[in-house]
Write a structure and sequence with these properties.
13 helices, Chitinase A, domain 3, 2 domains, 369 residues, Triger factor/SurA peptide-binding fold, three-stranded antiparallel β-sheet, four-stranded antiparallel β-sheet, alpha+beta
Amino acid sequence: MKRKIVMLIMAGMLTVTSLAGCSSFKPEDVVATVEDQEITAEVANFYARYVQAQYETYYSAFLGANMWESEASEGKTYEEYVKDSVLQTLEDMVILEQHMKEYEVSVTEAEQQVIKDSAKAFDEVNALEDKEKVSGSETAVERVLTLMAIQQKMQDAIQKGADTEVSDEEAAQKSMQYVEFSYTVESKEDAEDEEDDEEESREMTDKEKKEVQKKAEEFAKAAKDEKDFEAYAKGKEFEVKKTTFDAESMSPSEELIKAADKLKEGETTGVIKTDDGCYVARVTSLLDREATDAKKDTIVSERKQELYTETCEKWREDAKISVNDEVWGKIGFKDLKVTMKEVKEDPYSNAVQTDDVADAQDEAEENAE
């Protein structure tokens, strides 16, 4: 899921705890070079710690105490996974900076002032020892914030070139009403306190399933000739659900979608049997206006993201990038714990925003599941 995160960390406090002896490096050491632009160790370390703080603060609860040693993907730990993402993001941001003139992008004086104010606020509220551990000098903070600002502005500029014209035919969403006859039985176990009753579910026996199918068949036969599907179903005390769909939809059931997609407006399916139960549905519209317009927005968003991603990938392929593995290897997450202290009021509400960490969080959540 895409979302923007205001850089509250820059105006707030970090909690930094050493867990082991940290590998030392000089702030001016070079982690990577993109064309002729160097990414220094202090810039790489600060951005890495910023991303680390997001994980430590919001995801350590379900990723566990040894989250950085746990497996994120086959053969790769979370530390390796996140570090790879951090370094590539930094390299991409520098590449975007090098292409700013092509899109007439610049960081305005007002934006530069916000960046300076944010860096100053971070400097003032964090202890010197903590700032040194995360390379949080005003210079490093300003550089990272500047790169983030450029990344966001370049993304916006690139995405303006995406095709925003989407026809009704391309985005068409149909709508239907349906009744589900589930094979799952919900029951409550008795408890001394009624509020503590716990719902449990079980799958029906074959005999019970046949009874459900019979009920569905009776309903389908009668509902077919009813003018008002919803009113008839409610009159029979069935719950009527509504959804919009197209041929690619998978919910509520792939089998139901396939059957409904063949019907004209006003037509009703027979009994659609699935592993989880039966469905009977009526197509109510072949072009649901609201859902179709929403689909258009989704298609445009996808086009914009594809254009941005393809542009970055092309520039990255053409760029000369070298990495100093020895220096980069000195920056790790297992030797230092970094979390954020929540800020209730943000004096820099107009601060630079970025999607990068949000994306990392989403990926972490998906991998954890």
